Amino acid sequence: MSEPQDRLGEYGSMRAFDETPEPPAGPAVVGEHGAVARDGRRRFVVQRHRATRTHFDVRLEHDGVLLSWAVPKGPSLDPRARRLAVRTEDHPFAYRWFEGVIASGYGKGDVIVWDDGWWEPAPGIVVDDALDEGKLTFTLHGAKVRGGFVLIRTGDDQWLLNKRADDQAVSRWSIEDPPRSLLTLRTNDEVVAGEPPRWEPPTDDELAALDELSGGGVWEIGGRTVALTNLDKQLLPPRPPDAPAVTKRHLVRHYTTMAPVLAPALVARPVNLTRYPDGPDGESFWQKAVPAHAPEWLRRWPDPGARRGRTREYLVIDGAPALAWVANAAAVEIHPWTSTAMTPDEPSYALVDIDPGTDTSWDDTVLLARQFRAALDHLGLVAGAKVTGKRGIQVWIPVRRGLTFGDTRRFVERLSRAVGASVPELVSWRWSTDEREGRARLDYTQNAANRTLVAPYSVRPAAGGPVSVPIEWDELDDPDLRPDRWTIATLPTRLTTLGDPFRALWPIPAQDLPAL
């Protein structure tokens, strides 16, 4: 058994990683049964790749890499369909998250994640021996393809992929038209056009079923079964006092109905959660690891860089059912990583956090945000602002692939110091709140691996359920703007009227950070 990096030499030699958006051959920590994931299950992915010819890439995780076959017609659930499968180079485990456009070079074309899940070799099968002998029998547990399959070598790199006749077989089965991504619901054309990822909200019937649950029960949403408990438990006090308190039912409804606008900020990103099982006045805790009792369908990401004693496996939210599970856990706040599961060491954004001090007025906070707006306009950078739902304002600056957290941290520090120098009476650079003399801090330290800012449209633990809401830059001039202006009760009207201001950040602009 060779190390994953030793098996990825061909993959690396065929690509220029300063040009392709594909993930480099990074580390993969192999655990039980040769699987990367903590639960010992081997993952698989099927990607639809429109290159010189359109085909489907079937990739099976084994010993920290993805064994790969190009299947021109794609896998089939019909046992009578015999599919040509051409063995290609092993791919890194991180490739299971890849979706995008390869603009040039090897594999030029566009890719979507058509299906994924986990797989297991047939009983008694030793994978390496089966590959050497030219016959691998296995079972797929996916959303679209499932049941028994067999790969049979017919010569050199030529194989046949056949569905076995079992209870998952479907006669005359055909691939959906148009084929859509399992992760983002996009077609290949929509990926090329730069359409943002999206998730489907619950249907009217599903919401009616949620309303009918008396305190708890099983909720069928998006093809998944989610167990809900204590739905009428008060999580957040009312605002105003004569309004209804925010219950867990309200939280479940908010997060699932916000799925379409949450998707761009959450798709393929590990998340940290802040849970408040007894409301903001009770005990709260920060959760990173996926608990052992979590349902098996929840998407997980094993961190290859996790040191001993640190969180090994994170939750990756992938749609409304996962959001329902999160809300049922009383996870009021969702904090996505700045980087993705595919390239955890490369930030997608540079982040500015305007953190008010005890003496910082709201007008002072808005003034600082306007200074950042002017600076970013001067630099020609696309960015978006959002109120935090508490007291502050945050700025998200999309950046190109290939930058490091050191790059974004240095840039935001220099930008913040330039802004701070224009209004020195408002800003302190002291870390401790007690040493700031009531002044604001322009925090650049969140630009680091596994550091987060609260997600757009995340709820905050305060009366009425205020929400962190993206704003248009010109809303900084609105005298009615407040950091906690919108709640889970009032946000839907705003979205219906205005839409999502962060839509302008998608696709993420391939912008560099200028020297300051």
| Number of distinct helices | 11
**How big is the Rg?**
24 Å
As residue ranges, the low-confidence spans are none
Outline, from the CA principal axes?
globular
Structural class determined from secondary elements: alpha+beta
Number of DSSP E strands? 23
What characterizes the major β-sheet?
8 strands, antiparallel, barrel
Mean pLDDT: 94
Helix content estimate: 10-25%
Portion in strands: 25-35%
- The largest sheet has its strands arranged as 1-2-3-4-9-8-7-6
End-to-end distance:
49 Å
Written overview of the protein:
- The structure is a single chain.
- By secondary structure, the protein is α+β, with helices and mostly antiparallel strands.
- It contains 11 helices and 23 strands.
- The protein has an 8-stranded antiparallel β-barrel.
- α6 runs antiparallel to α8.
- The chain is globular and about 75 Å long.
- The protein starts with a helix and ends in an 18-residue tail after the last helix.
- The model has no long low-confidence stretch (mean pLDDT 94).
Topology (SSEs and partners):
Blueprint: H1 4-7, H2 9-13, E1 42-50, E2 54-62, E3 65-71, E4 82-92, E5 100-102, E6 109-121, H3 127-133, E7 135-142, E8 146-155, E9 158-163, H4 188-192, H5 204-212, E10 217-221, E11 224-228, E12 234-236, E13 246-247, H6 248-257, H7 259-266, E14 270-275, E15 285-287, E16 300-302, E17 313-316, H8 320-328, E18 331-336, E19 349-355, H9 362-379, E20 384-387, E21 393-398, H10 405-422, E22 441-443, E23 469-471, H11 491-498
Antiparallel strand pairs: 1-2, 1-6, 2-3, 3-4, 4-9, 5-6, 6-7, 7-8, 8-9, 10-11, 12-13, 14-15, 14-17, 14-18, 16-17, 19-21, 19-22, 20-21, 20-23
Helix pairs in contact: 6-8, 9-10
